[in-house]
Amino acid sequence: MDHLSVLRDHFSNMPFNHKMAADRGISKNVIHSMLKAGFIARIYRGIYAMIDTELDQEFYFRCATLKAGAESYISTVSAYIYYELSDHVGRKVWISVHANCRRNEKWLRTIRVRNLYPEIGISKKLGYRISNIERTIVDGFRYQKLVGLRQAADAYKNAILKKQTTPASVYEMAGLLQAEKSVKPFIEIL
User: Fold this and answer.
1) Which side of the chain, N or C, has fewer Cβ within a 10 Å radius?
2) Degrees, nearest 5: CA angle 185-190-161
3) What is the Cα–Cα distance from 47 to 66, expressed in whole angstroms?
4) Residues 6+ apart with CB under 8 A from 161
């Protein structure tokens, strides 16, 4: 089996990096020659994809997860857009990472968190993890200085109006994340 078919079999609509290709027996030199030949495209520094890959929102979520690490998760503004809670057009992928993780990518907006609570309110998708609606709303209020209070409040209102969640389940998620103090005033007012 040639290198191109190996890449197509394993990464057809998925981004990959040098390490992932090396695990399949493909060296950096082969990747660079395929890049020059036009079989693959460089999406970001160190991230590649097959030339016929569909570059949708979830593809960029997978790219962000490759850069930030497996414990990270898509959150706040990007999750608002994913769940259709906001009409804001995001130019960056918002991702929550551990406080020790430092990423300086122009296309990536990292929220560095001391305690990620990596299993609470996180949905696992193909190639990335994303916060569920309740956790997205709670994180929006927790990080309102980064997200903006108005955008967080609008997302909460939209989720309630679309019957995607209830105030009780949002407050319950805040309790699990030990964030009742930062969320309770907004739930009571809105």
Assistant:
1) N
2) 140
3) 8
4) none
Give the model confidence (pLDDT) of 71-94 as tens digits. Answer: 999 999 999 999 999 887 778 999
Please give the model's pTM, rounded to 2 decimal places.
0.90
Note whether 180 and 91 are same-domain residues. yes
> Could you tell me if 177 and 135 are in contact, meaning their C-beta atoms sit under 8 angstroms apart?
yes
Instruction: Enter the tokens of residue 39.
Output: 């079989």
**What are the tokens at 81?**
């857009």
Q: For residue 17, give both structure tokens.
A: 């990096």
The DSSP call for residue 162 is T
Its domain, for residue 137, covers 57-189
Question: Which DSSP category does 189 fall into?
Answer: H
